[in-house]
Amino acid sequence: MLFKNLGIASDHAGKELKVMVVDFVRIMGIEINDYGVGVDTDKSVDYPDYAKMLAEDVSQGKIDGAVAICGTGIGMSRSEEHTSDSSHQIISYAVFC
């Protein structure tokens, strides 16, 4: 599947990795919709809020796919699984960083 646009989000622990992923995806010519967290913030955030936004927009067809990054990779993937509409295929990957 070729993605035209991707959503991306991270919690505070994954923001540096998110910047690298965004740069790489843009080089590939894919539009990125950044859902947060901002790179300039040091405050702790609730990753389920970001995972929910991503999963809802994938389910509604607003974005073709999503990349969710958190400190362990487990929390975001589990949150997306519980938010996702069962009529859409959701594939979760856990990345430990």
List the helices and strands and how they pair.
Elements: E1 5-10, H1 15-27, E2 31-36, H2 47-59, E3 65-69, H3 74-83
Parallel strand pairs: 1-2, 1-3
Description:
The chain has 97 residues and is α/β, with parallel strands linked by helices. Helices cover 37% and strands 18% of the residues. The protein is built from three helices and three strands. The protein has helices at residues 15-27, 47-59, 74-83; strands at residues 5-10, 31-36, 65-69. It has a three-stranded parallel beta sheet with strand order 2-1-3, sandwiched between helices. Strand 1, helix 1 and strand 2 form a beta-alpha-beta unit. It is globular. The chain starts with a strand and ends in a 14-residue tail after the last helix. The relative contact order is 0.24. The model is unreliable at 86-97 (pLDDT under 50).
Features:
three-stranded parallel β-sheet, about 100 residues, alpha/beta, globular, 3 helices
Secondary-structure-derived class: alpha/beta
Q: List the total number of helices.
A: 3
Spell the H/E element sequence: EHEHEH
Helix content: 25-40%
**What is the straight-line distance between the termini?**
26 Å
Strand count, sense and barrel status of the largest sheet are: 3 strands, parallel
Q: Assess the beta-strand content as a share of residues.
A: 15-25%
Estimated radius of gyration: 12 Å
Report low-confidence residues grouped into runs of 5 or more. Answer: 86-97
Provide mean pLDDT, rounded. 75
Tell me the number of strands.
Answer: 3
3D shape? globular
What is the topology, as strand order, of the major beta sheet? Answer: 2-1-3
